[in-house]
Amino acid sequence: MLPRFSGRAFLAPMAGVSDPALRLQCRRMGAALVVTEFTSIHSIVAKQEQLAGAGRTIREFLEYSDEERPLSVQLFGSDLEALAKAARIVEPYFDIIDYNMGCPAPHITSQMAGGALLQEADLTRQIFQTLTGAAGGRTPVTLKVRAGVTESDRFLFLEVARIAEDEGVEMITLHPRTVSQGYSGRADWDMIKMLKERSDVPVVGNGDVATPEDAKAMIDQTGCDYVMVGRGAMGNPFLFEQINDYLDTGSYSAYTLEDRLDAFFEYLRIAAKYRIRFANIKGQAMRFTKGLRNGAVMRSRITHSEGIDQLADVMSDGIRAACAAG
Ligand SMILES: Cc1cc2nc3c(=O)[nH]c(=O)nc-3n(C[C@H](O)[C@H](O)[C@H](O)COP(=O)(O)O)c2cc1C
Fold first, then answer.
1. Is the separation of the CB atoms in 293 and 325 below 8 Å?
2. Using CA atoms, how far apart are residues 49 and 13, in angstroms rounded to an integer?
3. Mean pLDDT calculated for residue range 231-249
4. Do residues 59 and 21 make contact, with C-beta atoms less than 8 angstroms apart?
5. To the nearest 5 percent, what fractions of the chain are helix, strand and coil?
6. What pLDDT is recorded for position 29?
7. Spacing, Cα 60 to ligand 1 middle (Å)
8. How many Å apart are CA 312 and CA 268, to the nearest integer?
9. Total Cβ atoms within 10 A of residue 318
10. pLDDT tens, position by position, 174-228
């Protein structure tokens, strides 16, 4: 059974972005569900072997804090044996196991994973059977899917969703772009409406929600149960509180540059507890400077910073300069 969600806005899985620190911030700011970056089933199996041999657990590889709950782990990969093993390894630790059928990156689709699976109905059925079987009814399995592979098969998600539901998948997130579209064009929200009309499980709409107004428009236009926010939440964990307030009351508070600075330093404090790559932390710093007047200068300084202390100085100087300039 799915956990009870405290609101209608979820944080999307984003490789290199939805690390445990950003997830926790978003959760504290009202994200009703947070999802790990997608993780290879093969790397989970390999890590488990290493860690278990040393008396340690997979939590050292898939880092998280209990404060993030409800927390979903996203898997990719289609080797059924590895999938069953990986699902059994993660199942005791996470509240949801999400399966990726959307990633358009060639290094993923070329290994028959992510978006490439949309054209493989039989394998898709076996994947969901394997996952729900391994999760044993204890941990719900959900799906995140793109619309199709190319323009000509852009309604493949309907068949995939039907198979997923048949096999016990309990919630479906649709990012209504095709694999070949990447991030170009607009997400076609009519497809979310189509899925909602045909589904017996909760539907999560995803794609191009960057403001509270977008979140409400998506819910109103599609009838989706939840919205999932990706790029709009980068460097902007405030968005969840704003969406929740807007859906509840029709208004929301703005955040200042100082709030952004505070949020970035909070990110750094949380990040220090995890093994997040410094390159990824710099990426987060860039995103927290989005929209600042002196953002281009700051981003160049961030790129060249060589450690957390230097990065923190760059951020303090830069954001204070931006605030002083009004
Ligand atoms: C940097 C980045 C990394 C992403 N990584 C993942 C991922 O690991 N798993 C996944 O299902 N989707 C991933 N996505 C896709 C997002 O979850 C989401 O579906 C997409 O960005 C559309 O939502 P948005 O318009 O709110 O950003 C990623 C997107 C971005 C921008």
1. yes
2. 25
3. 97
4. no
5. 50, 15, 35
6. 98
7. 24
8. 8
9. 21
10. 999 999 999 999 999 999 999 999 999 999 999 999 999 999 999 999 999 999 9
Quote the Cα angle for 193-15-159, to 5°: 35
Ligand 1 residue neighbourhood (C-beta within 6 Å)? 12-17, 37-38, 74, 100, 102-103, 144, 175, 206-209, 229-232
Whole-angstrom distance, CA of residue 85 vs CA of residue 298: 45
Distance of CA 62 from the midpoint of ligand 1 (Å):
18
Question: Is the N-terminal amide bond of 70 cis, ω within 30° of 0?
Answer: yes
Helix (H) or strand (E) holding 156: helix 156-166
Q: Structure pTM?
A: 0.97
29 residue type, one letter: M
Angle of helix 295-304 relative to helix 278-288, nearest 10 degrees, comes to: 170
Of the options 1.10.10.60, 3.30.565.40, 3.30.1240.10, 3.20.20.70, the CATH number for the domain spanning 9-249: 3.20.20.70
User: Which structure tokens are listed for 287?
Assistant: 């995103």
Among 44, 32, 55, 118, CA closest to 87: 44
